[in-house]
Design goal:
- The protein has 195 residues and is mainly alpha-helical.
- Helix content is 66%, strand content 0%.
- It is built from seven helices and no strands.
- α1 packs across α2 and α4 packs antiparallel against α5.
């Protein structure tokens, strides 16, 4: 809703300058709002990936050794989804660090703004350090066909005890039927209600 309000305000201001109708074309408005929604989603992905790089979480305790590599590649998949590649993520981080250093020098007299830029630059530098410390491997490296086949064979060959599910004997069925309380039927003329 906020995006549509902002777009309408922009369209009204533009139309006033051009002397045109202040109501925008609905298709154009929809295209702009769809673009802004997609851009916002992309920025959210980038923000999430940068946050996870700046403060990486340790592997869960008790995670089997063979899954450590898979868990470690989760971050690489997030980077690929947010930036396209780790190299592109590195370029974006470098650009943002440079921007924040410039903001610090421009904000000279504004202590609060300079402190925010310094804090943001520190987080970005931590993200860059994490990115530099992790080896870059393509995500498809995890799809080793032989490893997957061995895992499937191991899982399929493991014996799993099946629960004993046999139908009850005729005598047991008869005993269960007799143990059930008798079904009550309503008395005629009471509408199913008993006094």
């Amino acid at each position: 809703m906020h995006t549509i309000t902002a777009l309408r305000a922009t369209a009204t201001a533009t139309a006033a300058e051009e002397g045109a109708d202040p109501l925008p074309d609905p298709e154009r408005l929809h295209a702009k709002s769809a673009y802004l929604a997609a851009r916002d989603a992309q920025l959210q992905l980038q923000h999430d990936a940068l946050g996870r790089l700046a403060a990486p979480t340790p592997l869960p305790y008790g995670l089997p050794e063979e899954l450590h590599e898979v868990a470690a590649h989760g971050m690489q998949r997030r980077l690929a989804k947010a930036f396209g590649s780790p190299e592109r993520a590195r370029q974006v981080i470098e650009g943002r660090i440079t921007y924040h250093h410039q903001q610090q020098s421009v904000a000279g007299g504004q202590q609060e703004s300079a402190a925010e830029s310094a804090a943001e630059a520190a987080l970005l530098q931590a993200a860059r350090a994490t990115l530099d410390a992790r080896p870059v491997r393509p995500a498809y490296a995890l799809l080793d066909e032989q490893l997957i086949a061995r895992r499937i064979d191991r899982i399929m060959s493991a014996s799993v005890p099946l629960p004993a599910c046999e139908p009850p004997s005729p005598g047991e069925r008869e005993r269960r039927i007799r143990a059930q309380p008798p079904a009550s039927s309503p008395e005629p003329g009471t509408g199913g209600l008993r006094p």
